Fold each of these.
Amino acid sequence: MKLRMNPAGIDLQKDPWDPIHSLRKYGQHVLTSIEMTVTNLCNMRCEHCAVGDALVWKEGPKLPLKLMLERLEEIDTLETISITGGEPTFDKRNIEAYILPLLQYARDRGLKSQINSNLTLDYERYEQIAPFLDVMHISYNYTNVEDFLAVGFERSGREVPHRQAAQLYENMVENTKRLTKAGLFVSAESMINYRTHHKLPEIHQQIVEMGCQRHEVHPMYPSSFASNLPVLTLEQTREAIHSLLDVRDEQIWMLFGTLPIFHCSSDSADHKLLNRLRTAPHTTVRNDPDGRNRLNVNLFTGDVYVTDFADLASIGNIHKTSLQPLFAKWMTHPYQQLVNCHCDAASCCGPNLLVKDTYYRNTDFHARQAIGS
Ligand code: SF4
């Protein structure tokens, strides 16, 4: 069976954002990925937004691009960059001043690149970026405009007219179709949460119809805007994943990430699901890059974070320090030590901090080991 075109040329078995590959290559976690927050502006206010508390309606100047490029150039192990926001293209001046030069830098150096966008604005701004970009990453958690209105503007603090939401929804769908048709690799991410867990097959079908080459699926964890949303049980999460695998289109790449289910579990239901994921066609489970092989840089302050959402305080600033020494410092941090396990036969390098905090507060992962891999 042939996989639908993967224009980014990313090998499923060597997903460059998955820290397991650099861990194997170097024998320890190294910094291979930098995510840059280029704006805190956004036309939406999604209820699950991982950076929702940082969003603004007006923002000040950014760091000189030169400084960011110098810090990237210093990282000899760098393999990928990601550009995130807010909506990175919200202020069109960002495209020429930051986004295109960063993507061009990545292309020239042979790095893979990703932008996280909502694709709801005019097509021209995305068309401008597409030739230099490897992965266009969008969120897609909807089956219709009503879902989009309920999820996408929940935290806007004002009534958003149905007509306005419908226009943005239509833009997103049409932009995605046009971009995938033009050959761009679009990866649509859905969250497994209290709204979506019974709707994933329908959401998947719409993602396939938009021509996306990859469907990314991650459980939602309580952070930032999502802090007070209901959390699913592990059983509900497993059921949701099974329901999706029952119907998914085998020609597109299914990428599951930040799963709260591990090979060291004593629950046979976890092993049943993990085995299904391991043998399903064109399906991968990504270890979370945050704090494993990736750091996030805020391009306004220069502050460096372990994740793009700031529940953990900044670990340093690029005005003063290069990124590899900051990463080395993070590797000795007590929080990192909490989740720094590794079972190579299971291709697993431990839970991320949100997963541990949500489901495994009292579990010592260092005392566990993958079973039967
Ligand atoms: S690496 Fe950690 S989380 Fe993964 S199977 Fe091993 S002990 Fe469990």
Amino acid sequence: MQGEFLKGLEGVFPKSFIAIYDTKKNTQKNTQKKIEQSLFDKQPDAVEKKPESLENQPMVVENQPLAVGKQPEAVLKEVFGYDEFRLLQKDIIDNVLSGHDTIAVMPTGGGKSICYQIPALLFEGLTIVISPLIALMQDQVSALKSAGVEAVFLNSTLTTEQYSASLSKIFRGKAKIVYMSPEGLNTKSKLSLFSERNLTVSCITIDEAHCVSEWGHDFRPDYLEIANIRRLFPKAVCLALTATATKQVRVDIAKNLGMNNPVELISSFNRENIYLEVKRKRDYFFQICEFLSEHKDESGIIYCMSRKNVDDLTERLKEAGFDAVNYHAGLTDSIRAKHQELFIRDKKQIMVATVAFGMGINKPNVRFVIHCDLPKSIEQYYQEIGRAGRDSLPSHALLLYSASDTQKIKYFFTEMDESERQKAENLLSQMVHYAESRTCRRKQILQYFGERYEAEKKCDGSCCDICDAGEAILEDVTIPALKFLSCVIRTKQRYGAAYVTDVLLGSKMKRILDNEHDKLSTYGIGKGIARDAWLELASVLVDEGYLIKSGEYGVLVITKKAHDAIVNKDKIMLPLFMEEKKVDTSAILDTNPLSHLKRSRVKKAPVAQSFDASDEEAAKIAVELRSWRTKTAEENNIPPYIIFGDKTINDIAAKKPRTHSALLDVFGMGEAKADKYGTAVLRIVVENLS
Ligand SMILES: Nc1ncnc2c1ncn2[C@@H]1O[C@H](COP(=O)(O)OP(=O)(O)OP(=O)(O)O)[C@@H](O)[C@H]1O
Ligand SMILES: [Mg+2]
Ligand SMILES: [Zn+2]
């Protein structure tokens, strides 16, 4: 299958070089010392000259189990423990194996890594993976190692010693995959060292390849150096991976990476397991607490627009007893790394963060992503919610939307030059449209990415809030709308929705009495309707163009549309169906928001479970496996998911394997994992069978 591409590459490593390194312990010690000396005063990533000591060291290759000659399907099953490829993975792998440069576009969490990891095992030489995600390389390498794949990384987080050990592994042909950061990449770098030593580099993979394009959202000038690197290894096939789908970005990737007539493969952007929901933002803290209480014991990310919002929300959540940590660019590197680690290792359930968090995070069991503020574009939104449900289990994306966010975001655009601002406003308006529109959210997103989505299947409640609610039902809200609009007029269009509502409800607030608004004809005429419902109505009136919300305090102003409706006595029909419950929370909002939740539980969101809920034995096995996983992860200093994902644990509990071969039928159980953890797993299963 490797055909033409591998011709001429075989036999690069002479047999006589084998194993010298390992047998000469003393030499090894001295070598180590020399390496340290030669690298000591430099940041590992900035190494420009090859370390002398390594130069003198003979190139050594050790025998290692290669998957060369196997079928990709067999590697998928035996190494990664998955039964089938996801859409397009196989096509991408076949292309790479046949030596065609390839640009692959898959959504966040779609499964891009396997597209270079499997070829890496099937090729004879080394695969270089260039990725900007330094902080995650360690985990990527640990995950591969736990699946039995030899991988190393080279970046500035390594000590000189570790760096040399990684290099040495590469030179001994012990590593199949090396992860590298783009910083400091240039022809004089460590890579020229590879080429001078005649290392066979079979594949160069560029992860997050949109970083090479100024049109992408994360341009990194260092990525432009990659083209030079490619010239060092002209025979290596090039695979560029990204989740950014625009044509312009793909054109830049091909050009800036110097790709040779690449094949472009673009997979569907549909992430079926993510439920899409948009709610009107009112008291966001209350709404978030409500959501979290419905998703107890689940892990998730909450995105906020500003660092301050992140810090405030984290504090309030902690006070309310939730297990949250914060993350944004204002925190020091070490705190960020610590918080990320706590989250990834399941030690903290909730990550409250700005956009700074999440690129490349492979935490498979993120069950929800909440947006507390409006994202700036659909691309950004989709990338962020894509961090949920990487294990394919049902997950939830909730966007809390308020029209006033739009103004706040636009404020950030004022410093941009005209064309940039136009572009940014255009992206934002598509996001606003998404939040306000009444058509299936999945359909809209896929349309945005240039895909047609036909929901032939009858909606089973797993698509989005719009599909769940059925056709938009317009209610005749003429009377309450007129009451509200006239109260806005009577209070001289100088107040926000909350104040107008308080007047309608006949509040005895000092401010109202001072303003003598208790004397207005609209004072107290709204008592029959809950406060929440009035606020909802106000926000729909804004959305539908009857009111404009302006300024910092969201002062409501009447539009011509409202004026005409009042004068002509038009019927006012509005889609208020999104509101689930019209409970008067006015009393509750002043006290602990959580006390309310106990009383007003809404339906429980679907919980990921592959075993039958009534199967007590399975439940016990799952609990035991989880606590064993936590302990083992801690002992080995790796994130729990690297041992097994939740889906694997649930599958073990459901299948209750009793033999080693039965274990291999479990989702996510490759041979290496079965060897390593099989005994412990089988023991737990057997001990919990009655
Ligand atoms: N064929 C498969 N069957 C089951 N699970 C898979 C399969 N392929 C990949 N996965 C799992 O899907 C998850 C996401 O994969 P991966 O990290 O490669 O995503 P990605 O496309 O690189 O996303 P991002 O854009 O966020 O980097 C991982 O947990 C991976 O193990
Ligand atoms: Mg990835
Ligand atoms: Zn839908």
